[in-house]
Every structure is written in structure tokens, then in C-alpha cells.
Specification:
CATH topology of the largest domain in chain A: Thiol Ester Dehydrase, Chain A
Largest sheet of chain A: 12 strands, antiparallel
Structural class of chain A: alpha+beta
Protein name (chains A, B, C): MaoC family dehydratase
Distance between the termini of chain A: 59 Å
Radius of gyration of chain A: 20 Å
CATH class of the largest domain in chain A: Alpha Beta
Organism (chains A, B, C): Roseibium algae
Number of strands of chain A: 12
Number of helices of chain A: 8
Order of helices and strands of chain A: EEHHHHEEEEHEEHHHEEEE
Strand content of chain A: 25-35%
Number of domains of chain A: 2
Oligomer: homotrimer
CATH superfamily of the largest domain in chain A: Hotdog Thioesterase
Helix content of chain A: 10-25%
């Protein structure tokens, strides 16, 4: 029996199966610092213990996407080592703040499985949960991936396709943010004069700035998440592959776009839910990422007058500024240069 | 009204104006570690809690230039987003040690303003102050920048040009260093047998080593400082610009040169003041930085027998070793390859 | 007298000489995080305070090789600045766990010296010891380096060549790991179902994955270790040198190979001893590192039933997958692409 991890194939998954992932990791302020250095994020709540504490947090929580990437990374060796494609996300909920000193672990449950008509691949639906050492759930989300079959001749299982929400109900979100002492929210320190009521459904914001990505940067980030997907790291094999180069982890694009979105959404301090996300095109080192946002909806949170929720579409492009809000063309296809179409809920003070 | 920050133009500044900057940031030992990894700095006081504590510090303070860069970075979105050039520094004073756990914020006051004769730009003089959460001032400095006018037709303001010191009086410096328990200063651990009395005015030191800079390195550093100046990050636009490539943050050059200067100035443990600095030429990724120093003056500090102050000119070059101390040619212009001419006071044990 | 460090030449060393090195450094969780981000290491004991504490550690100790690199780095300015080659290692012992907050220093003793027949160089044998602020020795090892003579005419000293063990006795190792509470060793969290008894002498394991190295990565790593060897950092001079490019620190290769070896040796949580190591060929940025291991021996530790020791040969290659376990060809020479032949003892739970 081989000592190395061959990854799981389509046949290896069964609905109801629970997989406890390696490696637990204690996150520290150093993860926050390195995250800042990799993306240039400037949200005050995640940057300053004092700012966060004055609002009601214990101290500065880790960036929500950093938590997402660390949890996601743990699932890779068990879920997507033999994946052909990461097809989508749904129902991502941030359930509790994560602070320096917390140890993050992850567990996944297989919630659906359906063979493709070609008989060589199938789609596996997985709900993954990140939790801390005392069992507190900090994040859960569903993703579905196309996975190779080990043996094309193995029989197709009965298809099980879970019902997934197109969007989360904002009322069930927000538990990862304490009730804020709004008197201490300082727009100057936060970097934006615009609060919840300044934003309206349909509004589009070009985030203006662009960020060029280097191989060393995305590799350092992806290893920080202990994400072992081979395509991000091995030029020797990728050089002979479809693109001739290493593929950048899709989560890296989300984090760059989120950091760029500070310019226009500076007070949007906390992601509460991920409705869905599509990696439209691959990103490579040397490309420059731009981003724009559209307000898809606004919502009040039950029992909370301190914050409101914005539902946003965050679109990232490569080598294409976003003054014209590039998205889909008349034929329904994404325009050239669009990298990411990400749909999420986030909180802003009122 | 646009949600994104358009930056301030010449007309937007007025003398006496006070600007509180985003984003406060809690610095930690992780900033110190990343700084070490980015520059290879080896000064013992900033590297070892035990060494620093034995001398009278609470623990290892953050590197002075790291503090400078973090404070400087905060001023960029408000002061220099529309800057044509960073013209100079003066009167920089390090006022208190910064320790891991401190939260740094910055505020600026506009102290002067003068339109240029071309009518399209002007010079703005700014005093910026960095402080911790309890209000302790840790750094202040003046810089002046050339900023675009929004409208060339707007009338020129009455010129106000502040009087700035050509050099700081060393007697007013030094408060950021405790009285040192010199018995615990161990030359072997510090890495140099040379103390204050070994250096004399006029002495020149070639720091010998060279350091090649990579895009990923300066981008990671500049984002660590949350400095958003566009020219450092966007190859898509810079590729079509004057140089065809990203410009490296001038402060990155200062930090490389300071780290190289350990070889020759190993006991120069603390920068107390910045008299002035000029970025003579741009640095690009792939270039190799060298440095040399000249002792411009030596001084005793009133009431202190533990340390003396050296006033140094720190010169950095690119792709040019410094055995011949490259500086200005006969016509008064800087020689080819000179990047930086930096004038500062720093302390060395006696 | 020059203020800069000229490094020591062959004549400057004498047997019995003790050299206390600069710069003491307080290591923190930030070093662990950056190490993870640079190599992608996934060993649970070094990643999770909770996992480590449940087994008997105070908290997650720093990676053994990180400790090695930091101690090694301190010796460079005094031992190998004028080195022609790093010839070998022997007798490396990890003596106590190193935790965040510890301050690491290093001292070396010259234990042998022999001039080469060419009269221009000689070999110096050095035992280096790393210790924490309270004097606890955490690591010692011997290395021998070929060093230039300052003056070819200086007389050859009486040769002193120390007797060095070809391999360490595993019984004298293991003190840096506490007695483990094995009930808490969770294979799922650790990432491997294979324990000590699953491995047998002669077994070979291809670690499958490859990791491409970037200039920014090895420079950041090598500066993190405050290793100043010029060949790693200066493209301006190395571009004109033998290889035309910067040489990657050999320790970087060891750490990449060790991180890759997680895939196949996931429960091998702690390196106890380094029997020897040979850097067979240079590594350059852009190359992809692969690795394989061979179990050279297995051993019980006296008085311990919790863990056993594996003696392993860890071989790294560049741009060459290791399915065929590349090593030496019939003529006894290393095959093309082999980078590293590293012989070490490490512990695995029973």
C-alpha cells in the first residue's frame, strides 16, 4: 500500500460520509500581518486591536477570507486532489470571529454525488465546516467539484443533488460580528465617509486600482493556507500542461478583489455570507487584477440597528480596468478579461 | 458623489488643515520578523528581546524605519495620491520606542503651500505625526510633495513656505532610547567591535555587500506598510508609462541601505532623526542595491554618557559597488547609479 | 582598520578557538508562520498549539530545520564568508524544543584544520551550538568548509582532523521531544494513517509533488535566517560569476524536501539528528524540486514506548520526478538532477 496520498476518486465518496481533515493550525497575528502584506488590505477592524476592541470585538479578528482560505486549504488533499474543476460555492456562512491564538480545523460531509454522462467523471457536493479547538463552528460552506473516476467501468451511483440556496437569507447571518458600539466607529480612521445608508441597490462602484501578481506572492499565500493543489506550485509539470504555467489559486483572486474594494467600500468591515462564486477564467503571474462591485440588495438585520447588510457582486478582471463594469456580453458569456463573479453578503455600520 | 477616493489636489489643501489618516494598525513581532525577512537586518537591539531588555528596553523595539514606513504609508491616500513627486524630507524625529502590541495611527498638518510657476502644479508641505493608541507621539517628520492642481485656472494661493531645519540638533533627539546599561552591551552578540569613539567626522565606509530586489519583495513590503501608491503595484499601467515598469517605493531603498550598513556600523542601534533625504533615481526590480556611509558629524547627548550620536550620510547605488564612494560629479550632479542621499542622526554606545 | 567584516581566512582559525556569533534573535510564532508560507510544511505538531499540547509539548515547537537554519545563519559571517565550499555536516543533534519567545544565539568551536595540497585553501572543522537565553543548548552540529587562505605563502599548520560519527546513535537522541501521550495522536488530524511499525528498512517512498522556487522566496527565507552569504543575494556579481545567477541556500533545499516528504511521512513529526548531508548540485530560481526517501534503519529509543526512530535518506532532485528514485549511477556518481543527499534520524509515534 502506497504511503503517499493518492487523493480520493469519485468512487471513494459516498453521501453521508464525514471526513476529518489534516492539519489543525493555530493562527496568530502573524497570519494577519502576512495577509496584509500579500493583499494590502486596509479594513480597520482587521488591522487594529484598539479599533476593533472599541467597537465590541475582543481584539482585531482575522480577515474572513483568510479564515476561508485556511479552512478550504485543509479540504484539498481529501476532496479535490483529483478534481478536474472547482464548479461552485454556495451557502457560505461566517459563524464566529476567529482571533489570533485560535486553532482551526476542518471537517467535511459529502452531501451529494452525481456521475457525469461521459462516465469518466462525476460531481461531488461537499459541505465543509471550520471550527476552533473548543468545537466552535466558525465557517461552513458548500462547494461542488468535478472529480475523476478511478475506473470508468465502475457503475454510476444513484444521483443525489442537494438543494442549495441561490442566496443566503441575511437574517440568519451576522453572528460573527458583535453588536457594535457605533459611537466609536470613526470614519476617518476607517477610511471612508460612506455608511450603509449611502449605498443603494443597483449601484456600481469601480474600485479603480490594479494589482499585479507575482509567482512568489501567490505561492507564499497558498502555502500559508497549506493548500497543496499541485497546479499552483509545479512549473515543471504545468509548463507542459494546458496553460504552460502555474495556475493561481482562485481564492487569491477573491482576496485581491476584496482588498481592492476597500476603495469604495471602506466601511464594509465583515463578510457574513458567500452566496456563490464562479472562477470565470484563470489568473497567471504577471497579470494585473482590477475589480468592481454592484450592490445587489440591502437588508436590515433582525434586532440590530448598528449595522445593515449589503449583498454585493464582486467582479474581478485581469489586465482590464473596470470603469465600464465588464461582465457578460449579449450572448450571456462573460466578457474577455473577467476572472471572478463573486456574490456575498457583508456588513456596514449605519 | 464617487465612493472611491480621488485623492486630494493642490486646491484641496490649506495651511493649518489637519488630516486624520486611515488605517490604524496594531503592529506585532510579526512585523519585525517580516521586516527581517525582507531586508536581512541584523541589529541586535531590534532582533532580540533579551539583548534589548538587558540594556533597558522593555523588549526589542520595532525597527525605526519600519515605524517610519507604516506612518508614511497611512499618509499616502490623503497626501500623495495625486503627487507628481516626493521632493524631500526634513526634521524627522523618533520620539518613543514602538513595541509589538502598539497600535500606530497618523495625523498630518498642512504647514505650507506654494503654486509652481507653470500654474498646473504646486508644492504642499506636510508635517505628519505617528502616535500610539494612548496618544504617545512616536515619530514626526516633514515632507513636501509636488501635487497636481485639479484645475489649472484656479487662482494661486498666497505662498506659505515653512522654515525647515537643514539638520536637527542632536541634543533634542534620543528620547526613544532608554538610558542603556552598557555593561550588557556585548560587541560579539551585536556583531561589531566598533563603538562611538572609533568613528570620526569625514570617515567613509563602503558597506561592501549588494542586494538584488525582486518585484514580489518590494510589493510585499509596501503592502505591509499599507502604502497604496499606484506606481508600485500596477504593471498593466506602468508598463505603458515612463519607465515601462513598476517603481519601487523609495523607503524600500532606505531600508535596504540601512540593512547593508550593518556591515561597518553594526553598533549603530537606533535612528534618532532624519535630517533630509533625496531619492536621486528610481529603483526597479532586478537591480542590485549597494551602499556606503560618510560620518558627517559626531555629537554627545546632553546628560548621557552611555551613547553618542553620529550624523551620517547614507548613499545607495544600483548596480554599482561603492568602493569609490560614488556621489556627485564635478558639475554638481549625482553620478550615474546613485539612488539615494539620506542624512540622519543615529546612536551608538560609547 | 576596516570597519567592515572581511570574514575569517584559513590562517585566522585555530583549533580550540571559540567564536561567539551575532545576532541573537527572539523567535516567535511569526517565524513559524512564515516558514509554513515559504515551504508549505503541514506537520501537525509544528502547526497546532492544541495538537502539540495534547501530546505533552508546552505548545507547538518551532520546526527543527527552522532552528537549524537560524543557528547556521549566525555562523556564516564568522565561519564561511570566505568559504569556497560547504563540504559536509555530521553529528547534528536537536537537544531541546524551541518555542516562540525563545531567543536563539550561537557559538562555534574550531575542532580541526587541515591545509589542502594546493596551498591556497584549507579545510576548517567547526562544531556550532545553538542555545537559548537561559543557556539551554537546543542544537549542535559539525560542519566542515573549504576556506581560502589570506596568503598562499603562509605555512601549513599541523593537520588536526576530528573523528566524526558516520551516523548518530539513536539512543542518545530524542530529548527534544517530550514523552508523548499517544492517546491524543490523531492520525486524521496528523494527515497519515502510517505509524512507526508500518515502515521497514529498505523501503523507498516517492514524495510525488514538486515545488518550483522563486528568487523572492529563497531570498526572503535566507534573510529570515539572517544568513548573509553573498552568493544568495547579489545578481550584479553572480550574473558575472560561474553560474550567471544567484545560488540558492542549500538549507532551503533541505526544507523544501522535508516539506514535500509530508506526503508519505506525515507522522514523522520531529528530526532528532543529522547524520550527514551533501549538497550534490546547485539549485536556481525557476527550478522545481522533487524528493524521495529511503528508510535506512529503524530503532527503538531506550525507555520509550511512545515513539520509534527512523533513519532516512532524503534525496532531492531538480526538474526530475522521483518515481525511479534517482541516486547514483553505476560509476558511483550522482545522477543528473540530484541536488541533495541528506541522512537523518527522526521520530514517529508507535
Amino acid at each position: 500500500m502506497s504511503k503517499t496520498n493518492p487523493g480520493n476518486f469519485f468512487e471513494d465518496f459516498h453521501v453521508g460520509q464525514v471526513i476529518r481533515h489534516a492539519t489543525p493550525r493555530t493562527v496568530t497575528s502573524s497570519d494577519a500581518t502576512l495577509y496584509t502584506a500579500l493583499y494590502g488590505s486596509r479594513f480597520a477592524v482587521q488591522s487594529s486591536d484598539d479599533f476593533a476592541h472599541s467597537l465590541g470585538y475582543d481584539r482585531a479578528p482575522l480577515d474572513d477570507l483568510l479564515v476561508f482560505h485556511i479552512v478550504f486549504g485543509k479540504t484539498v488533499p481529501d476532496i479535490s486532489l483529483n478534481a478536474v474543476a472547482n464548479l461552485g460555492y454556495a451557502g457560505g456562512r461566517f459563524l464566529a470571529p476567529v482571533y489570533p491564538g485560535d486553532t482551526l480545523s476542518a471537517v467535511s460531509e459529502i452531501i451529494g454525488k452525481k456521475e457525469n454522462s461521459n462516465g469518466t467523471t462525476g460531481v461531488v457536493y461537499v459541505r465543509s465546516t471550520g471550527y476552533t479547538a473548543d468545537g466552535t463552528e466558525v465557517l461552513d460552506y458548500v462547494r461542488w467539484v468535478m472529480v475523476n473516476k478511478r475506473d470508468a467501468a465502475s457503475p454510476a451511483p444513484d444521483p443525489v443533488v442537494p438543494e442549495l440556496p441561490a442566496a443566503l437569507d441575511p437574517l440568519v447571518l451576522g453572528n460573527a460580528a458583535p453588536l457594535l458600539d457605533l459611537e466609536n466607529w470613526d470614519n476617518d480612521l476607517a477610511g471612508s465617509p460612506f455608511r450603509f445608508d449611502h449605498y443603494a441597490k443597483g449601484e456600481k462602484i469601480d474600485h479603480v486600482d490594479g494589482m499585479t501578481v507575482e509567482e512568489a506572492e501567490h505561492q507564499i499565500a497558498t502555502r500559508l493556507y497549506q493548500n497543496t493543489a499541485k497546479v499552483h506550485f509545479n512549473q515543471h509539470t504545468e509548463g507542459k500542461g494546458r496553460f504552460g504555467k502555474r495556475l493561481i489559486y482562485g481564492g487569491h483572486v477573491i482576496s485581491i478583489a476584496r482588498a481592492l474594494s476597500f476603495n469604495g467600500l471602506g466601511n464594509l468591515f465583515h463578510i457574513t455570507g458567500i452566496n456563490g462564486g464562479k472562477h470565470v477564467a484563470p489568473l497567471f503571474a504577471g497579470d494585473t487584477v482590477y475589480a468592481w462591485s454592484e450592490v445587489l440588495a440591502t437588508a436590515d438585520l433582525e434586532g440590530r440597528t448598528d449595522v445593515g447588510a449589503l449583498r454585493l457582486r464582486l467582479v474581478a478582471t485581469k489586465n482590464r480596468p473596470c470603469a465600464d463594469f465588464p461582465m457578460k456580453s449579449a450572448d450571456g458569456k462573460y466578457e474577455d478579461g473577467v476572472l471572478l463573479d463573486f456574490d456575498y453578503w457583508a456588513l456596514m455600520p449605519k
